[in-house]
Amino acid sequence: FWHHKAGRAAAAVGTSVFAVLLVFIAVSEWVFWDEFGARFNFIAVDYLVWTQEVWGNIRESYPMVPILGGIALIGAACGWGATRAGVIRRICAGGATWIQRVLWPVAGLAAAAAIVWGVRQSDIPAFRNQFNGELARNGCWSFFAAFRHMELDYKKWYPVLPDDEAVGETKRMLSNADEPAASPDPEDLTRGISGRGEEKRWNVITICMESMSGSYMSYLGNTEGLTPNLDQIATESLFFENLYATGTRTVRGMEALTLNLPPTPGQAIIYRPEGTDLTTTFTPFLDRGYDCAFFYGGDGRFDFMNRYFSTAGCRMMDKNAWNKDDVTFETAWGACDEDLFHKTIIEADRNHLAGKPFHFFCMTTSNHRPYDFPDGRIDLPSHHGRKPAVKYADWAVGHLLAEASRHAWFKDTLFVICADHCASSAGRMELDVTKYHIPAMIFNPQLVPPRTVNTLCSQIDVMPTVFGLMNWSHDTLGYGHDLLAPGAADRPGRAFVSNYQKIALLTDDRIAILKPNRQVTVAGCDLETGALTPLDPAAEAPLVRDTTAFYQSASWLFGSGRLKRQ
Questions:
Q1: How many distinct structural domains can be found in the chain?
Q2: Cα end-to-end span (Å), the chain
Q3: Are 24 and 105 in contact (CB under 8 A)?
Q4: Pick from 432, 481, 476, 479: which is nearest to 456 by CA?
Q5: Do residues 99 and 213 both lie within one domain?
Q6: pTM for this one?
Q7: Structural domain boundaries, residue 513
Q8: 131 and 73, same structural domain?
Q9: pLDDT (tens digit per residue) in 398-439
Q10: Which are the contacts of 527, defined by CB distance < 8 A and separation ≥ 6?
Q11: Measured at the alpha carbon of residue 299, what is the angle toward residues 298 and 301, in degrees to the nearest 5?
């Protein structure tokens, strides 16, 4: 083929395309450097997620038609020049043997793999001038290194305080009469939590609901009847009506519920290579001899969930650990929610018979594209968009509780129901807080009297409140609070919200947003509409300082290895 005219034409086109790619990368690096003064990093990876917003910004900031046209012309010129110079003809007429044709590509791929996996960020010399360090890197390598590590160096990109001030300020904000510091060591953020009565040995089943926005429920004004079960359960639960998700991804919600930390820049800790063997909310259960397990209707290797939960001390009960007949209906994402809950009940029965208390973490999947679920469960058809899937997910939770109530262990079991994030996080505002408002409730009227908590709060506060209900004494490095502690009502509410780059502290009427290049935005915030009214950061210095301390110390806590299990 390559000896013929068509083969030479294909080689010329391939040369042009490859040249276009190289020039496009070079121009992209220039544009990125122009804005951030750095080689590709996690911000560039993030740009692949927020393509629409980023492309709109680039289109408005640069003359893209001439730039793209110039790149195309350069690529075409390379292909034409290679043809005119006879390079294409000589390549196509090459007399390489088939062994050589195999060995050369293999050698090239092996060399590339050795560079990607063998060279680490830490191998790059430390320069006093940051620009020198960035110029020493290769842009493509930096991109893949950022993709692999999935984080932004907080101290390099965000507003900072001296480390001792950031940690000390955080220690002051976290410690109170109910949750005092456990050590005088200024670098130890451990708090010693004391139970307020006889310790309870209740079972706990946490249901992390995929994309269950608060706006689907009646408490935020929805009148479509999409969540009749959750609406009813909320009236019989300890219900958090003013609770906000920390992020926009499932792993971020899992991180909040199990690590109780503010969302550090980049991907969730669960996703990062160092996110293993950590002290989590499972630790107090394991210390008391509980069986801890992670239930998921899909493949738990996705998003490194199995790696995270298994090294935290959990049994893996993703679909790969199920029997074939445990699955009655599935999509590409996994088994339907009712199958997930049926498997959960089977394992709960097994633990009850063995006399072993349990803490299960269940991650649902049905409220996700392609929005398919078994027929005959609700009055809306499958595969017809988000709303029917929301109603099926609601039905599945109601079905779980109805079925569980027939089992002996139900009377000693708390059901913690919380969304991972909202169904949509995009918005016209810098951070639209209405797209972070999620439902959370702790259910079992036999154990916890129904009550509504109105305080502004975060996903990271859910499990500390569970430990408070159970009167458990334990140490914690988490930043969450027991919302029912004696002094909780006197403390101001707060929540942490983020996307991959922007990290924020939300109060009842203001929000402070930290952004790369050490930028800060402070605004008055209407929690009902999400409307932001710009404020002067200098005039809001205490709020900016608190926000900086929280996020800098959380990044330091993880980066220093202090979260590792002892």
A1: 2
A2: 63
A3: no
A4: 481
A5: no
A6: 0.83
A7: 167-559
A8: yes
A9: 999 999 999 999 999 999 999 999 997 755 567 899 999 999
A10: 242, 433, 434, 437, 456, 508
A11: 145
